[in-house]
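Students often ask what a holo structure prediction actually looks like on paper. The answer is less mysterious than it sounds. You provide the chain, you provide the ligand, and the output is a string of discrete structure tokens encoding the 3D arrangement of the protein together with manganese (II) ion.
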Amino acid sequence: MAGGTELRRRRDDVPPVLSVVTPTFNEAENLPLLVEAVHRALDGIPHEVVVADDDSPDGTWQVAERLAERDQTISVLRRFHDHGLSAAVLDGMTVARGEYLAVIDADLQHDPSILPAMLDEVRSGGSDVAVGSRSTEGGGYGNWTRGRRFVSWVATFIARVVLRVTVSDPMSGFFLISRGAYEQGAPGINPRGFKILLEFIGRDRTLRVTEVGYEFRLRRHGETKLNRSVIRSYLLAVAELRLGRQVDPAFLLYVLVGMVGLAVNSLVFAVAEAAGVPRFDTGLNEAIDPVYGSFVLSVNVSILVLFGLNNEFTFWEQRYRGWKLAPAFVVFWFMSLVGTLVHVAVFTFLENSGFLLGLLGAEASRTVQNLVGAVVALVVNWYLNTTYLWRRRTR
Ligand code: GDD
Ligand code: MN
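The corresponding structure tokens follow.
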């Protein structure tokens, strides 16, 4: 457990069968309701509730400690350092004493009434992990918007393809695991981020996983803490699970963004060509004349898109905000100009060599020349961007 964590709990003599760990951040109103619902669901099954709170400003830890005064089964972790969902869950699991460990959100979006069914699945020896699932039989997403369902669907698809996990809801924050599987997996887990279930099942493919359906409910009180940076940290987590920690996962995001930029570039270029955007002479240098108007246009549109995506996504932790966006964009534009010169040089070289023209014909060769130039420029710009603009702290 991290230093600077305060643990309050009463010790009963016999460890419980099930520990229910609930991470909390500003859940003061929800927590008493959750505890009550957990007790009701687990009536007759010896259990404890471990609240892993990140020193919530709304005093969730105080509410929890007050509950614990009257209720021997509650333990409270008030965490001062290393805040974060996964880290809190892992700390909660560290102090949990049950033979089985469950994790459930405190906001009542997860349905505690399926905990006994989850426990049965693992206790019977048939599985190591039971996942509370929204997409299996008996499950549902409640009234999620189409947009949110789509994001979840894409994330699940990525996990299934890239990590080859078979569960239908790998994003679930609701699961139950045997102590054996927990102790096996815990030492290898990356405590950053929020995808704690994926950390367990993505690292150890031998785990037998089963799913129990439940209907995802609306949050009763308070609001979600997961902002749009979760998509980014999710992709980073998947990349790390797949490739290990050697490859810089930010580079993968950069390439991903670069591919979007490339698509934008190609699209704008094609549309501009079709629309007959004129070529023009700069009169500066015979080698680059005539300049393709469509090229100038597509490069500038993609520079804008790339700056936005890199700032808001790839380098989110070091992102520029407010007025600083303007100078940062200017620097980015000039760096891109260097990239663009490389791009132009490669394009022109290929064009003049006539090599692709012979192979592919006029139209296709120009598109391919454009692509090759962009890829070379991408690598040059990665170096410039990470060295001068979004300088990263060494990890
Ligand atoms: N201790 C601690 N620290 N708890 C946190 C933190 C944190 O930094 N961030 C969130 N929590 C707690 C919340 O208080 C809540 O009990 C639970 O973790 C889930 O957080 P929400 O903010 O309610 O997340 P969500 O409802 O948007 O996301 C849920 O669905 C996702 C799938 O779509 C969660 O279950 C995610 O785990 C899940 O991936
Ligand atoms: Mn929630």
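The two ends are 21 Å apart (CA to CA).
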